[in-house]
Amino acid sequence: MEIVGRVPSEPGHAPPRGPAVGEGVWRFTAPALESSVPQARHAVRDLLAHQGVSGQGDLVPNLLLIVSELVTNAVRHAALLSPQIGVEVSIGRGWVRVAVEDNHPYRPRPLELEADQGRTGGRGLLLVQAIAEESGGRYDVDHTASGGKAVWAALPLTSAAPVPDGGPLTSLRPPRSAPGSPAGQRPARS
């Protein structure tokens, strides 16, 4: 797993402490392999704990489930065109946002899956959407400048702090990252 930003590459290594509870953005890349799913989940869990985002009800378990679902989708559906995926965690005043970016142009549409209740798989994005909505958060998919996509969910740190809508929502979108990083392109606004 290649690290671009401030996420630990090995268990037990904490990222440098940033500003008070979470104000910051951490980004890393990983190969589009099944083994990256638990690695990404553990890196995000360690980062959230180190930044003081813990003990807030279902927030951390929900974020970790979202990371698992988004990384799994990128590995399963985008690996052919995107051998590397980007994972980003943004923590702002009152919210936490996780995003997974790949270079595959297909934009998933989770609502199309609702009609096929007989399927045994394919409900990960519905789960992500449901968690975001139930938590008072947001979920979306953005196109990237490189032709890929960033799938993200932002959850409020507390139930009393809704995720911004409208103009401030742009603060929840992925920022520019290191040039040359497969996930380093700022998404085009939809």
What is this structure's SSE topology?
Elements: E1 24-31, H1 36-50, H2 59-78, E2 84-92, E3 95-102, H3 124-134, E4 138-144, E5 149-156, E6 187-188
Antiparallel strand pairs: 1-2, 2-3, 3-5, 4-5, 4-6
List keywords for this structure.
190 residues; disordered C terminus; alpha+beta
Structure report:
A hairpin with a 4-residue loop joins strand 4 and strand 5. Mean pLDDT is 74; it is low at 1-20 and 160-190. The chain is an alpha+beta fold. Helix 2 packs antiparallel against helix 3 (124-134). Helix content is 24%, strand content 22%. It has a six-stranded antiparallel beta sheet with strand order 1-2-3-5-4-6.
Global geometry: globular
Question: How many E strands?
Answer: 6
Largest sheet: 6 strands, antiparallel
Residue share in helices?
A: 10-25%
State the end-to-end CA separation: 30 Å
- Which structural class fits the helix and strand makeup? alpha+beta
Number of helices: 3
- What is Rg? 15 Å
Low-confidence stretches: 1-20, 160-190
How much of the sequence lies in strands comes to 15-25%
Mean pLDDT: 74
Spatial ordering of strands, largest sheet: 1-2-3-5-4-6
SSE ordering: EHHEEHEEE
Please provide a brief summary of the model.
This protein has 190 residues and is α+β, with helices and mostly antiparallel strands. The protein contains 3 helices and 6 strands; from the N terminus they run E-H-H-E-E-H-E-E-E.
